[in-house]
Amino acid sequence: MYSIRRRLTISYSLALTATVGTFAAALYLDRRASANREQEEQVTARLNVEASFGRRVLQEQYRTTQNLVARIPTIGADGPTLGLQRDVGNYFEGIRDVFAIADGQGRLLYSSGLVRELPPAATTRIRQALTRQPIERRAGRMTLVPGEEPFRYVIEPVPGVGDGPATPQTWVLIVAARPEGTPYGPPQLLMSMLLVAPLILVASSLLGYWLAGRSLEPVDDMIAELEAVQDGRSLHRRIAVPPGGDEISRLATTLNAMLVRVEQSFTSLRRFTADASHELKTPLMVLRAGVERSLTHPETPPDLVHALDEALRQINQMTELVTNLLTLARADEGRASLVTANADLRHFVVEVAETAELLGAEHGVTVHTTLPDRAVVAAVETGRIRQLLLNLITNAVKYTPDGGTVELSLEAEDGEAIMMVRDSGIGIAPGDLEHVFDRFWRADQARSRTGDRPGVGLGLAIAKWIVEAHDGTIAIQSRPGRGTTVRVVLPMTTKAGVA
Ligand code: ATP
Ligand code: MG
């Protein structure tokens, strides 16, 4: 999944790419259009100047010499070729564009160097343009070299010139040229844009990533603070509200208000559980005393004894449940603080092992105990540690079929006391392992509480609370059909602590 930061950066970069791209394309197209226009104007202006220069030179030269034509003897031709007088032709030598002159009969008298460089077809086209009727001033475009850009041309009639004093005619001249690219024209612009655009995009994406990170920092802080609200005991925590009244600070305020409401309902639920279990304790005690008295009464008819026995069993189970509930409710409220004293854990293990052997004998389960030679001293509350071990050992015996074994062991390692309860029982499915410490969770919910494996699902929840209240850890490993191992690690008291 993408983080908001990455998504923001990606969409920002995409938007920027689109914007920069559109801008660059618009700039390029506009630049190209105006460059074309400028070139067109430049060329047309130059052609006009050259055309009128040609006309004026021809007319002035005719006025002084009365003949502009020379007959040039040519080897290989039928007769002499017609051309401009050398003096007149010299005027046009400097013209770099297409420049050609035809006389009144359409004979080509002069063509510039460029015309001679072009393919013969171009000369034909020029000749056609020169002889096109009516003879008048024209401008336009024409293709001289197929496949290449067309030439802009100007056709200029030159009246009052000729090859003799008595016969003034109207000649025609043509000038044509191709627009030339400017030194920094659209192609160069495109190149620069292609070079600069990636740099801009990379730089601004990095900047965007950094900015997104900065603006999401308060959210990260908020996540960290909310993660600290782990259970009922940390519900009193509140999130720091960033100043400024922006969305983030409003979110923090809203979350805080929600935490207040959750805390309130959590507290009333906890109080209700604590009060209810507390209120139930006394009636249960009275009930038990009554049933016990009736059981021991000599006049109780024997057929009632059985019913009373069952009632006593149920009352005992209920008392245990109520006690467990009260324990957890008090633990949640933080009222179940421990009164610890240094004690050798071996005593508890030995004690519990005896109970386990009795329990095991009932169920056909063998119990082995392993103890270290040296004392394993830890600061513990006697009653709680006993309860912890009892809960684990009852589970081990309860969930191990006839003929199985339960191992109980204690060892000291690196300043830690490690208690293990291992059984060869039915085990727990991998998917269920994460739930075993949940309150009221049982692998087989449907199984009746009074069936062959009675229980309500609070044993491990209490065990976990006891271990954690002693700053220890509890972990469970299991393979279905192969058995279960519960490992409890408690911090040991150092030598100095014992003294
Ligand atoms: P309670 O302990 O409250 O009488 P319980 O034994 O069912 O009831 P927990 O001790 O909390 O409740 O255990 C929860 C569940 O975890 C059990 O119902 C059982 O499914 C499973 N479980 C616990 N210990 C073992 C074990 N040693 N082997 C197999 N399953 C176990
Ligand atoms: Mg149990």
Fold and architecture overview:
By secondary structure, this protein is α+β, with helices and mostly antiparallel strands. Helix content is 52%, strand content 18%. It has helices spanning 4-65, 86-91, 113-117, 120-131, 186-227, 247-296, 302-333, 345-363, 382-398, 459-469, 495-498, and strands at residues 69-72, 81-84, 98-102, 108-111, 138-142, 151-161, 169-177, 341-344, 366-370, 377-380, 405-413, 416-423, 473-479, 483-491. A 5-stranded antiparallel beta sheet has the order 4-3-7-6-5, sandwiched between helices. A 5-stranded mixed beta sheet has the order 9-11-12-14-13. A two-stranded antiparallel sheet has the order 1-2. The radius of gyration is 54 Å and the shape is rod-shaped. The mean pLDDT is 88. The structure holds adenosine-5'-triphosphate and magnesium ion (MG). Magnesium ion is lined by residues 391, 394-395, 455, 459.
Q: Strands, helices and their partners?
A:
Elements: H1 4-65, E1 69-72, E2 81-84, H2 86-91, E3 98-102, E4 108-111, H3 113-117, H4 120-131, E5 138-142, E6 151-161, E7 169-177, H5 186-227, H6 247-296, H7 302-333, E8 341-344, H8 345-363, E9 366-370, E10 377-380, H9 382-398, E11 405-413, E12 416-423, H10 459-469, E13 473-479, E14 483-491, H11 495-498
Parallel strand pairs: 9-11
Antiparallel strand pairs: 1-2, 3-4, 3-7, 5-6, 6-7, 8-10, 11-12, 12-14, 13-14
Helix pairs in contact: 1-5, 6-7, 7-10, 8-9, 9-10
The chain binds adenosine-5'-triphosphate and magnesium ion.
